[in-house]
Amino acid sequence: MNYSQFFQTALNRLHDERRYRVFADLERIAGRFPHATWHSPKGSRNVVIWCSNDYLGMGQHPKVVGAMVETATRVGTAPAAPAT
Fold first, then answer.
1. DSSP state of 63
2. What is the pTM of this model?
């Protein structure tokens, strides 16, 4: 089976059906919630974001950031849990 052709056909079908997801290149700046910079194909532009998973801005709250830093300092950071 030609897997490259299989996946290319599937991608082409998604494009044709207008169901291919394209993610916006957004840069959030701490302290400027809900404002962000959208890096669009036509250049950067300031935008307001109300539809993210962080629509209340808690990801920038000092207590939340402090808890994240404390946890990362205590247990470290890694893409996966350590083996037990």
1. H
2. 0.54
Q: What is the DSSP letter of 18?
A: T
Could you count the other beta carbons within 10 Å of the beta carbon of residue 57? 15
Q: Give pLDDT tens digits for 13-60.
A: 999 999 999 888 999 888 888 899 999 989 999 999 887 777 788 888
Distance, CA of 14 to chain centre: 21
- The answer, yes or no, to whether the previous bond of 34 is cis (omega within 30 of 0) is yes
Distances (CA, A) of 51 to 10, 21, 60, 74, 76: 29, 16, 16, 32, 30
- Give the integer Cα–Cα distance in Å for 56 and 13: 37
pLDDT digits (tens, 9 = 90+) for 70-83: 999 999 988 776 66
- Alpha-carbon Rg of the chain, whole angstroms? 19
The residue among 31, 22, 26 whose CA lies nearest residue 47 is 26
